[in-house]
Structures
1.
Amino acid sequence: MFTSAGGEERSLLMMIFGGTGDLTHRKLLPALYHLMAERQLPEECSVICIGRREISQEEYRLQARASVAAHSRSGVDETHMERFLSKLQYRRMEFVSDPASYGAFREWLSENEALFRAPAVRIFFLAVAPEHFGLIVSRLRESRLIVKRNPDHRVMIEKPFGSDLASARKLNLTITEALDERQIYRIDHYLGKEMIRNILAIRFGNSLFEPLWNHHYIDNIQITSTETLGVEGRGGYYERSGILKDMLQNHLLQMLALITMEPPADLMPESIRDEKVKALRALRRFAPSGICEGIALGQYGPGVINGRQVPGYREERDVDDDSSVPTFIALRASVDNFRWGGVPIYIRAGKRLDRQRTQIVIEFKRLPGINYYQEFRDQPPNLLVIQVQPAEGMHFQINAKRPGNEFRMDQVELDYSQGSRFQGNVPEAYEQLILEAFRANSSLFTRWDELEQSWMFVESVEKMCDAGMQPFPNYAAGSRGPERAGLLPREDGREWLEIQLPRREEKE
Ligand SMILES: NC(=O)c1ccc[n+]([C@@H]2O[C@H](COP(=O)([O-])OP(=O)(O)OC[C@H]3O[C@@H](n4cnc5c(N)ncnc54)[C@H](OP(=O)(O)O)[C@@H]3O)[C@@H](O)[C@H]2O)c1
């Protein structure tokens, strides 16, 4: 039985604005297919995909079938597919220039809702361009498709939430006129990724780690998210966002918050989010000095990736010939509190780099006495690697004796591969996000104060480091990024840790 927070049975009406778009076809429809195949959603469930183009129900279902087949994580089963398609409907609606369409939609929806036995949870998923978020939410409220403070009326909003601090505040004001915080599910799809969800389990479920999780035992933390891909036809979007808004403001700072937050009182969404926001508040802002210190920005030029020549960022479609948008960032962050004082947190992310990986590396301090044992000299420090993608898993590097008569030390990796242990059964991020929104669990979504703190940090980066003053392009596609990035940890006597985990079955 599928129940609300109060324990009453619920059905589901899922409305996707942007139902003909890329995100819907590549991520949302496959996610809904799997959720239905695994009976995670109620039998009384309708998915209404809203788009502008004129297509028939049959045509839409054919397209949906093809998209699920192409992007499903584990193939498709015909019985499940038929059941999924039977719950899918396409509705044409012009949501910008036709305000009256909302009233007509409400009447149609109410008639459909009345066919359900159990009261419905209404989830509106906004998979549309960000400039439409505020307008759609306002119109949903005016037409009473959503009612403020009704916990069964929920809106899921894609990123980016605003384009800077001021626009994010303005958008939030518009949205909170229509909905209260409990009804808003701001998406950062990284929070739905298995290994990101696993951070809390690793930190707070192991007596091995939590007592060491502080400046006494940890030397530095490195958060890396690199891609070999370029902007892949989304040059227009990237010109407005760049790496700061595409990665730093959301995914990278969310990972930092989960790694550095204090243990929450319990695992309720608000307790977790309270601790995350405290960590983000303690994140030191860069001073607006104008000298780009502690930060390296970059933009890729042409180069070779996997044996293939690729163009530079400025040669991509819909990108300015003299664009000053950064496609790479590396910085040294500090969380100024009792736990983390003095521990540098190195963050780097970029496009068109030498390889693809998102990983968090915790480097523990070396043992103080290690130099007294000749045999232990030069042993590397312990490392904990949390690998988010492509191959999800965890890897713990320790030192042990090499087998044999001689007492020689060796580096040993304790390796946990999620993919090989749970073959094909690891849900994709959007499955988890949709399911948790239905269950009214907002811990996988970003609360407004977290977002506000993230935007403040990003603004301090922008004020300190003017991308327009950088000698772009300053790294070749296929390289490890600009030279300046390598110097950042070196200035502190450290290095970027280039961890190559054993290659497992890779998936994006
Ligand atoms: N694509 C991704 O991988 C990805 C990843 C992360 C976040 N996002 C975010 O997700 C959102 C959607 O991205 P997307 O790539 O899916 O965009 P998209 O492919 O351009 O799709 C836009 C959708 O909006 C609909 N639409 C636009 N104007 C409309 C109007 N006036 N009335 C009715 N429908 C209208 C389009 O309908 P028609 O096609 O019928 O005109 C289409 O379904 C964006 O906020 C993006 O930043 C996307």
Note: Residues 359 and 370 are 28 Å apart (CA to CA).
2.
Amino acid sequence: MNGIAASGRGDPGATPVVVDLHLHTDHAHGTADVRSMYLAARSKGLAVIGFSEHSPRPDGFVYASDYREKLVRGLPDYLREVREIARRGAAQGIEVLLGIEADYLRGHEAYTRDFLAGRDFDYVIGGLHFQGAWGFDADPADWERLSRQERFAVYARYYDDMAAMCASGLFHIAAHPDLVKIFSMEDFNLWLDTDEALPPLRRALTALRDAGMLLEVSSAGLRKPCREIYPGPRIMAVAAELGLDIAFASDAHCAATPAFAFAELARYAAAFGYTYSCIPTRGGAARRMPFSAPPP
Ligand SMILES: [Zn+2]
Ligand SMILES: [Zn+2]
């Protein structure tokens, strides 16, 4: 522990959570550059600021408005700019980490492994955004075409993919662990009530624990149509029961949202018994960062 957890840096209303490991930039589809995101995060009182831009994807995995080419072009600049801002942060007593949010694409593990192998990331977030070539979190109209049973099948496969993602050994953190609910909260909750939901969910979270990974607890869901923290309470209960370690994240894509709703996030995690979040370390045990839940 380096003493920054209780530094009290920032304004009196600053969040007691001082770590945000999930920030995007304008190198993909964010709206602010690395420096602006750093300044915004610092102004929120964060002591550990983790950048986690999207990684390039193999051919065939496209969203309707794809930014893959931009990612490929911008990656060298992203790496250089984050390393530069990390040097500046160190001089100001703030730790900046160079991460990446890499898609988990089942059957394309070699692509991801090759991408990561040549680069010196501090940590890798695994993001499930695709089933096959379908980017399921892009367009609510895709979901309107699915029956309830078809949606249930998507949910189950999501957790099968998460188990495979965790077993791949490529990632330190599982991003937004129920993103699949984004456009169909009602059906997702109905699915969680069924007998078919718990086995794949528990397999995924157990695989996460066995891999020594962290479960992301993200305020991004509060800004999305599902209007709920990722993951929701029933999944958090299983996570707590299994003793999973967590990592806090805003998934900010603009300068207004680093540490977004982190006081709420802290209260939420504390309600499940959590007293610290974690930061991955290279090859060692995750670092623990205590937090306290502020009064509402
Ligand atoms: Zn994501
Ligand atoms: Zn993200």
Note: The first helix runs from residue 34 to 43.
3.
Amino acid sequence: MTEIAGKAAVVTGGGSGIGMGLAGELGRQGARVAVADIQIAKAEAVAAAIREAGGQAVALPCDVTERTSINAMRDAAIAALGPVQLVFANAGATSFTPLIEMSDADVDWIVQVNLMGVMNTTRAFLPGMIEAAGGHICATSSMAGLLPGWMPVHVPYSAAKMGIIGMMMNLAIELKPHGVFTTSYCPGGVASGMKANNGAYRPERFGGPEPVAEVQFSGTDKTHSSMAFYRPEDVAPIVLNAVRNNRPFVFDHAEQRRLFAETYVSVVEACYDDLDAWQAENGVPQGNPTGADLID
Ligand SMILES: NC(=O)c1ccc[n+]([C@@H]2O[C@H](COP(=O)([O-])OP(=O)(O)OC[C@H]3O[C@@H](n4cnc5c(N)ncnc54)[C@H](O)[C@@H]3O)[C@@H](O)[C@H]2O)c1
């Protein structure tokens, strides 16, 4: 069990949407919360609301793509709240532009925020959690990471979000002796600021702010036409419940289980069927005859 009450928690991207919901719920459940965001005014509003509701919270500026910025945010969080044992690496951004039309800077931005942002945040807070012999990192991936065919026109985003899942699952093995756990949260449609503010705060080195994308999903895309967008305050308790129980994944749309089966049971199983058929006809590859597991 990972206790929430009484712990210090950090939420990146805590100024809006899912992060705002997580920060508020952490405050309600008795955690001391650092609301970290590249949009500091939004983080300040969220922290103020938590304090008004009787909780303890600070707002801290950070750009998750910058290690120096993340490390400064970590130091400020620890100074304000004490050792941090709950980390929600949640900041993210996306693009609705086809890959071949994206600029190099845009591709770099999406991968840096979503993948390296989680890596940077994790690495900044890990030593403290290991020292405390306990903690939990919950990274916000996406259904577009678990099932990269789920959302069209999201190539760098899907790659980064799938990378988060690999990172969290592999890290879980490394951290087991230290009592630190990991969770990949895969939202499947949460009403948030992503549509309105996506790109508006893109840092200068990734091309600076870009016009707000007007189209979320194409009119011909039937995948999402009936998708319900849940409220951040309704999904946050589901996420914290999974963290409390040290679950490796947390989902928020029960009906999407069907898509998981379609992707991994139908597609991946069919590819294994192909391999079985190939080997039945052609035989199984021989092991390296020298017995060495590396070939020079
Ligand atoms: N809303 C959904 O349906 C959905 C679905 C799947 C995954 N997600 C993921 O959920 C997470 C939260 O997104 P959201 O939907 O709440 O959107 P949002 O735009 O409301 O919130 C994202 C927050 O991240 C912050 N941020 C962006 N870049 C940053 C940076 N470099 N450094 C620090 N903060 C930064 C933004 O300022 C913003 O406050 C993201 O990782 C997103 O990819 C959302």
Note: Residues 257-282 form one domain.
